[in-house]
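= Paired protein data =
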Amino acid sequence: KGLRIVHAHYMVILRATRLRTSVLSHYSEKCIAAACSISRTLHSRSSPLFVAPRLAITRWTNRTGGRNERLGAQVRYLSSETTAASSTTAPDALAAPIEKPRPVRIAIVGRPNVGKSTLFNRLAGRRVALTNNTPGLTRDRKESLGEINRVSIRIIDTAGLEPQRIAVKDPLLGKMMHQTDTAIEQADVVLFMIDAREGITPPEMEFARTLVRDKAAATAAYSRDNMVEGEVRRNRLPPVLLVANKTEGGFQGSWVGDAYALGMGVPVSISAEHGHGMDDLFEKILSFVPKEVIEAHRKTYEEEEKKHVIQFAIVGRPNVGKSTLVNALLGEDRVIVHDEAGTTRDTVAVEWSFKDTRVRLVDTAGVRQTASFRSEIEKLSIRETLKALDFAHVAAVVIDAMQGFTRQDLNIARMCADEGRGVVLVVNKWDLVAEEWKERARESMTKQAEGSLAQLRGAPLVFISAKERLRTDRIMPHVITVYDRWNTRVSTGELNSWFEQFSKEHPPPSYGGRMLKVRYMTQSSTRPPTFLLYVNNTELVTQHYLRKITRGLREEFSFGGVPIRIYPRDRKSEL
């Protein structure tokens, strides 16, 4: 009987949603309230009776688009009330661990041409949105998945905010603003972006007053229940984070004082174009996420990582034998091999298995020095190579044994390290080296690799002949070893026990009568291994001391062939 009653009221609600006028009948309003009341009475955590009325309310809210604010507010209130009622019926279910959290939704808003799409591409890890100096390039709401410290995120790029008095006159701007409002309502965190070069403008002051309606909403973390995969349930505005873009070079202008007047707290200074300040931005974003949600994300990430394919890119100068090496590893003539340099123009990806390990092998075009580019085709080829390196986990840098390490070889290896990729050094054409010179050449190249590639010290060095299939079977075990090192996580206790002994052998530096004091050290992320060093004053940390710590970490925890990143933090970073 209860199911029939709910179904009858549900059909009335569906008819009400089809009305195009701004005023709904009194009867429809009462039906919505009655359906929600019946749902609260009959609903249980596993019951399907509650689904239909809630879907109807959601559809009605979306279709009316806020044209009837009084009734819309009532429906949203009833929806949140029924959600609260359902939460009280099954407290044990809510207390259970989160098994499958949904991505954290991050909406980027701001006036036109402040760099929203550039930050969107930076967070997404690839060029998804078009970027140009022309204001108003973005119109639709664009979404993409990304990841911050093993926490899955969904980034939402929006159109530039326009003053209300202008938007109401232009139908297109009105639709764009409606898309932006929808993004804000669906977001878990809102990044309000300003241009530090131009400072705070009057329209931005207006937007800020709209976003920050109460102080608690701008600082409190969103509900844990909102993170379970499914629909979004919210009865307040999401937290807002003020982001000042285009601050490269430590630029400080009049915006600093005006930023605090927006009521959004301490701004985060970044350069979306150059990637400066992104670590501080990541920390601020994750500060709004409950700890149990972060742990659930990271647990899911580790489980999914076991199923992932190792992205293995082969890079190097032209005509060093990259394509020949790909064919040797696959055991077939998969890619074209020719004596002419530059035969490979586009990246070629092949998925295969090595001893039950799934590998995605990517052959790339040869990278020459920038001054040597001769055509637009070659420029496009290099761009594709760099894109393949962005997605790679491990890169094999192929070197010609007859030429040894050239400056460009070292530049390519350093480029891999700067991108945070694990590296295996492969010396090809070893069969062409005379027998009496092989031992001396091996020692010379090993010494040069250790001395010239400090960021990749301890990287495996394999001497092969791809053409003759000589020792090519030794490459993949080294690739898997480097991949495991790239994913290594050291516990905070073990890390600080080592650092206590390390600091006795290498005391922290002092400057101007002030001594550096290290409070503790922790690993914030992997891929590559990244560490945070909490000290009393970051200005006292020298690059020489950081290199000592990096060298000690590499020797103690076997991080050979993997770049290590260490970021000093002071007490203010913890607050």
